[in-house]
Fold each of these.
Amino acid sequence: MIPITYSPEVAAARDARQPLVALESTIITHGMPWPQNVETARSVEAEVRAGGAVPATIAVLSGRLHVGLTGAELDALGQAEGVAKLSRADFAACLATGGTGATTVAATMIAARLAGIEVFATGGIGGVHRGAETSFDISADLAELAQTPVTVVAAGAKAILDLPKTLEVLETSGVPVIAYGQDAFPAFWSRSSGLPAPLRMDSPDEIARAARLRAAMALPGGQLVANPIPEADEIPADTLAPVIEAALAEAEARGIAAKAVTPFLLDHIFHATDGASLAANIALVKNNARLAARISAALRAQPA
Ligand code: PSU
C-alpha cells in the first residue's frame, strides 16, 4: 500500500470529480528563496482555483505522499532545511525511510498519475545541461515525460540548459512538445528561445483532445505544453545570456554537480539580476497555472 494522504480540499474535489491540477514542491524548497517561495505557492494555488480547478501541491512529508498541502504544511515545507529533492530514483526510498522530500517534475508526474490527476503546472522542466556530452547530466524529467501520461504545462525548459539538445531528446523519446499560441519554443524567462517548437496549439480543447487520442492509441508518456511567459514579465534573451554564462562559469569553477546544479544556477541568476529573474519566474508559474486549469476543465469535458 502506498502511504498517500489527500488534503481535505483535494479529497472533496476527487469525490465531486472536479478538475484538478497538480503542482510541484521542488520549486518551493530548491527553486525560490523564503518567503517568496511560500507566497508564490499560495498565489499559484489561487490562480488554479480562479481558473475553476482545484490545486494539489505534492510533497513527501515524514514518509507519506501528500497530494494537496494544508496552509500549515506549505508554510513548514517552505522554511524547512535539508529537504530532499526527489525524482523517480529516490521517491519510493524516501517513503520507505520516513523521509521528507520535495517532488521535482518527474516525481510530481508520478504522484499525479497515482492520484488520477491528468494535468500539472510548473515553471520550467529540467533538461539536457550544457556540456552534457562530457557530464552526461540530463534531467530525469525528460525520461518521465516519455513514460508517464500527464500533461505538463511549463514555460519551456530553463534557459540555463542546452535547449537544442533538450528538444532532440524529447523528440527521440516521442514526447509531443506543444508551444501554446506561438511558433517558437519559449525559454523560461524569455518568450522565445529562437528555436521553432515541434508543435503548436492555440486552445486548451485541442491539447485535451491530443491527450485523449494518445491514450486511445496506447501511446505511453505525457505531453509538454510550452507556455510563453507573458510579454509584460519577460526578460529578453540577450539581456540574460551573459548572466547565464557567468552563472555557468561559477558553477563549473566550484565543481557544482548533479542535483545541485539547477538550484545553484537559479540562485546565482536571482542575485545577479537583483531579483528580476525571480519576479519573472513567479509570473510565468502563475501563467502556467491558469492554462493548466483550463486544460484540466477541457479534459473533464472530454471524458476518456
Ligand atoms: N520550475 C521552476 N523552478 C524550479 C523547477 C521548476 O520554476 O526549481 C525544478 C523542477 O522541480 C524541475 C527541476 O524538476 O527544477 C529540474 O531539476 P534538474 O535540472 O536537477 O533535473
Amino acid sequence: MKIAVVGTGYVGLVSGTCFAETGNKVTCIDIDQSKVDKLSSGQITIYEPGLEKIFLRNLNEKRLTFTTSLAEGVKDAAIIFLALPTPPGADGSADLKYVLGVAHDLGKIMTDYKVIVDKSTVPVGTAEKVHAAIAANYTGEFDVVSNPEFLREGVAVEDFMKPDRVVIGVQSERARQVMAELYAPYVRQGNPVIFMDEKSAELTKYAANSFLATKISFMNEIAQLCERLGADVDMVRRGIGSDDRIGKRFLFPGIGYGGSCFPKDVQALIKSSEEVGYNFQILKAVEAVNEAQKLHLIPKISAYFNHDIKGKHFALWGLAFKPNTDDIREAPALYLIEALVAAGATVTAYDPEAMPNVKAVVGNKIGFADSQYPCLDNADALIIATEWSEFRTPDFDIISEKLNHKVVFDGRNLFDKHQMKQLGYYYESIGRP
Ligand code: UDX
C-alpha cells in the first residue's frame, strides 16, 4: 500500500518505518527541511532501540522516503496518517492547530478518495473537526479514521510490530477494509483489531493512559502508607499483583511518572471532562499525587543532612524519565535538580543517553560525568532517578570508595534493602522503610 505520514516526530517516524517494514511504500512529510535532509541521508533523529536498523534497511530499499512537500508526499497515497504534535495549551487542553492546519491544506490538495488517519492523541470529537477542515476545500469522497497509538518509548518497535491490540475508530465500510488490510500483517499472532466509532477510539487512548497513570499514583500512595506503617511495598505489590483482576504490571512505585504521554493525557482528560460539565475527581488526585511524588526524596535527603543541604554535593544517576530513552519531558530528575540547586546544593549527573538533552535545558547549573562511577567523586550521597539496567548491579566497593558518606537515596527501588544494610549503607527507597 502507498502511505503518507505527516509529521516525523516520535510517533510519525516509528509508524512510518514500521509500515515500510512490512512492504508498504511510505513517504514521511515534515515542514522542517533540516530534519528531512538528515533523515533522507540516513541519520536517524530519535533514539529508539531497534529502530535505526529497520529505518536504514527501508531507506536503502526505497520503501521509506522523506519530503517537505505535503502535495508531493500525499499525491499517490491511499492512506494519510497525521502524526502531528498536540501540545497542551495554557489551559491544559490539547492544541489542535497543527492537526487542523494540515487537514485544511489536505482539502486543497486532494483530488481522489483517501483515508485520513488521526494517529496523534487528540480529544474526543477531533475526527469530526478534521473531517470538516478537509471538507471546507474538498467536495470529493474521503474518510477520517481515528487510530490511536499505544507505543511505549524504548520498546516502540516491538509495540508497533506486535501490538496487544489495534484500535480503529471508523464509520465507513470502505475505510474499514483499507485499515483491516493495512494492519493484517501486524496481528498475525491473533491479537485483535478492535473496530469502533471515532469518538470511542479517541477516548480509548486517554482512558488507557489515564488508567495506567492511576495505577502508578495509587501504588505511590500505598508506598507512602508503607513508609508510615512499617510495611514493605514490594511485598504488597506482589501480594495484590498476583490477582489477575489487578495484574502484575505498572504497580511499581517510584518518584512519579513522566514522559510525553501520561502527564499530558491525564491533564487533557481532566480538561475535556470539565468542558462537558464533569468533574473527573480521581484523575485530579492522580495528577496531584504525581506532582508531590516527584519531590518525595527531597525531605528524606534534607532530614538526613539535618535540614541543611547547602554546600552538599550530590551524585545523580539517571535523567531520562525512564530507561532506554533520551526523553526528559516531565522527567522527575529535573524536578530533583531544581529543588537541590535551589537549596544551595551542587549536583553532578550521569545518564547513558539523556545528558545532551538535559544540558540544553539546565546549562551549567549542574555538572555532568562521562560515566556512572566518576559521577560519584566527592559526593555526599548518591541519588537514583532512573532505573537504567547498568545501575542495577553496580560495584558497591567503588561506590563506597568514591562517596564521602555511604548514603543512597533510591527513587526506583533498585537495590535489596537488606543487602544495602549489610554493606553498611544508609539507604532510603520508596515505600520500603
Ligand atoms: C506510555 C504508554 O505506556 C503508551 O502506551 C502510550 O502510547 C504513551 O505513554 P511511555 O510514556 O513511553 O508510554 O512510558 P511507560 O513505559 O508507559 O512509562 C510511563 C511512566 O510511568 C514512566 O515515567 C515510568 O517510570 C512510570 N512507571 C511505569 C512507574 O512509575 N511505575 C510503573 O509501574 C510503570
Amino acid sequence: AGKEQWPRGEEEVWRAGIRGLDKTVDDITKSVVNHVQTSLARQAYNIDDLGAYQAAALSVRDNLLVNWNETQLNYTKKNPKRAYYLSLEFLMGRTLDNALLNLGLKDEYKDGVQKLGFSIEDILDKERDAALGNGGLGRLAACYLDSGSSTELPLWGYGLRYKYGIFQQLISPEGNQLEAPDPWLDNQNPWELPRLDVTYEIRFYGRSERSHDGSGRAVWAGGQEVVAVAYDVMIPGYGTKTTNNLRLWESRSKRGFDLNSFNAGNYEGAVESSNSADAITSVLYPNDHTSFGKELRLKQQYFWTAASLADIMRRFKNQNKPLAQFPDFVAIQLNDTHPTLAIPELMRILIDEEDLTWDQAWTIVTNTFFYTNHTVLPEALEKWPVPLLEHVLPRHLQIIYDINLFFLQAVEKKYPGDRERLARMSLIEEGQPKQVRMAHLAAIGSRKVNGVAELHSDLVRTTILKDFVEFEGLSKYSNVTNGITPRRWLDQCNPELSALITKTLAVDKNVWLKDLKLLKGLIPHAEDADFRKAWAAIKQRNKERLAAHVQSTLGLTVRTDAMFDVQIKRIHEYKRQTLNILGVIHRYLTLKVMTPEEKAKVNPRVVFFAGKAAPAYYIAKLTIRLIVNVAKVINGDPDTKDYLQLYFLPDYSVSLAEVLIPASDISQHISTAGTEASGTSNMKFCLNGGLLLGTVDGANIEIAEEVGESNVFFFGHLTPAVEDLRYQHLYHPVPIEEKCPALANVLNQISSGLFGNDDIYEPLLNTIRQNDYYLLSDDFDSYIAALAMVDEAYQDKEEWIKKSINTTANMGKFSSDRAILEYAESFWNIEPTPFK
Ligand code: OX2
C-alpha cells in the first residue's frame, strides 16, 4: 500500500484545492449562491423557484461528485468483482429529495434555501421526473441501483439517455388519451455528467466475412458507424459514502430529431420517422409487455449493449488479466431479454477481436451473464425476424446460428430423435419469416435465470422454459422476489409515518431503513389506542395532501372523509382495470336503487385510477375513455355523489405515485391469476399501511404470507384453473346472462348509453362477451363479494387501523436491499466494498 504519486505539480497545492463535502448551512448557502452567479449566470434579484432549484441541485451534485470520485477510486484500488445491471429502462423519478436524504443534508439545505428566501418544498416541486421507463421493470432497476449503493456493492447501471422519456399523457374532453412528447432535458439536467471523452464507435449493417482458416473468426466491415457518448448519473447510497454510477449512452452521428413530426396523435410515426444516428437514442419506446420487431428498437438494443460491453471490456483490460478471468471480475445482469444481444456481442469480441476459440469464448460468456425474466405473457416474449437481424447485424446472426447449432447438437445427444423437442428449444422459430427467440438465447447464454416472485419463477420453470429446465437442471432456474427501496417509498413519500415509526421503534431511522425487518417492532403497538390514533391521523393528512394536489392540478374537490381506493399501473387487459371500472358501475347502479335509510349505512368511497396505455393499444385506450366518462356521470349525480366519487388522474408518474400511495386505504392488484409476474406497487402500498385487494398472483401471495391472510382481501380463481376456464370459454361457452347476471347487467347498461350514447365501448365489452381471455366473467362475483368485505372491514375503524399497522410491520422482506443482496450473493458473487 504505497503512497500515491501525484502526477504533476505540488501535492499540497492540489490537496488544499480539493473540494470537501458541504457540512454546514453556511457551506451550503455559499455554494448555492456561487452556482446562481456562475453556473446559471444569474443575479440574486432575478432568481425564481426554478433557478433556485437548479442552483441547489448543482450544489448537491458537487457533493455527490466528491463521494462519486472517492467511490470510483476505491474500486480502482481494491479491484473487486463488479456487477453491471443492463436495463433499457431506468424510471428514476426525481433526484433532489433523494440525494439530500441519502447525503444526510436535508435539514441543512432546508435551512439554507430558507435563508435565501425559498421553501424547500417549492424547490423540490420544480424538478421534472426522469421518466426513462414504462413501468415496473424500469422502476425496479431504479430501486436496485439505490439499494446497490446503500449496501455498498460495486454495482453499475448501463442504459440509454433518451432525449424523450415516456410520453406525457393528456386526456381529451371526450376522455381519450393523447400522447405528447416529454422533453425532460429542456431545462438542462443537473444530475448528469457528460463524459465527452468516453466514446465508442458502434457499427450497423455492412458485411460479415468468415475466415477460411477454420478458426470460426469473421471480419465485419462497412455499413454505418455511430458514436456512443457516455453520460454519468451519480447514485448515492443511503447513509454511506458509496456513490455508484449509472452510465447512459447517447448516440451521435460520426459526423436532430424532427420535432415537427411530434404532434399529439402521431407519436408512433414520430418514433419511427428517422434513421439517422441521433435518432437511435431519441425516444423511449412506449410499449410495455409487447415486442414489435421494429428496426430502430433493434438498433437501440445493439447500440446500448455494444457500447456497454466495450466499456466493461476496456475496464477489465486495464487490469492486464488473462481473458479467462473475465467472469471472476465481471457479472452482467440482463434486465429482461432487451440486452440479450450482449451474448453474441461478447462472443464476437472474444472470437473476432481477441482470437479466442469458440469454446473458450462460450465458457466466458456463460459464466458472465445472468438473465431475469419479467413476464410469461406470450406477446411480451421478444422475437427478432431473421431477415432484419441479418440486415442490421450480419455477424451476430452468424454467431446466433452457431450457438444454435452447437446447442441443438447437445440436445439431440441427450434426447436422440426427439425432433419436436428440438423445434421447441431451437433459437430459431420456423415461419415466414423465421424469428430468433431471445428468451431462449438469454437462457442458454446465462449462468442463472430467475423470475421475480415465487409463483412467477415456478411458471417460468414449468411453462416457457420447461424444456430448458429438463435439459440443464433445476439449479440454474431460480427466483429472486422483487423489492422496493424504503427510502423513496416510505421515508421520502411519507415523512410523517417515517417519523412516527422512528419514534416508536426508538432507533435511529438510518437503522430501520436499512434493516427493514425491524418494522416488526411495531406489532405490539397495534394494541395501543394512542398509537392507532396517531397512525390514522397520518393517513388522514396524506389523504388531504392528495386532495390538495388534485385541487391544485385539476381543479377538482375530493372529499377526504371517505375510503380511498386506488389502482395505479399501466393500463393493460391482464391487469384488469376493466374489472375495477365494471365494479364501480355495479356499485353505482346499486346505490341508485337504494332507499335513503339503506344509503345511510353505506361506506363512502373515492376511487382513483391512473396509468398510461401504449399509444397503439386500442382496448386499453377505450378502458381509459370508459373510466373518464363513468366519472363524469357518477360525480355529477346528486343521488350518489355523496357515496361514490371516481377520478382518473392523468399522466401517472413516479412523483404522482409518491402522493397517491401514502393516501390509500385499499389498493387493487387484480390481474388474472398467473399473469402479473410480481407487481411492485403492491409492496409500496402495503409498506405505507394501505391494505391490499387482489388476486392470488405475483408477489401478492408472498405479501399475504408475510402480513397474514386475515390482513389482505383475496378473491378470484387460482392459476391452475385458468387454462381450463379459457378452454371452456372457447369450446363450451355459457352466455354471460346465465353465467354472471350482475356483470351482464353492467355491460348492458354501458351498451344502452348510460355513459355516452354511441357504440364506442362495444369493442371493449366484446372482449368480455366473446372470448373473455382474462376471465372477468369468472371472477366478477367473487370480486364484488371481496369489495363488500372491504366495506365491512372498514366499518370497524379500530380493527382496520390494526390491520394497517400489522401490514406495514410485516413488510420487511420486500426491501430492495434484501433483493439486491440475494443477487449479489447467490448470482454475481460480489461483495460490499466500503471505504472510509
Ligand atoms: C413488469 C411485470 O409486469 C411486473 O409484474 C413486475 O413487477 C415488474 O416487471 C418488475 O419485475 N415489462 N414490465 C414487466 O415485465 C415486462 C416484460
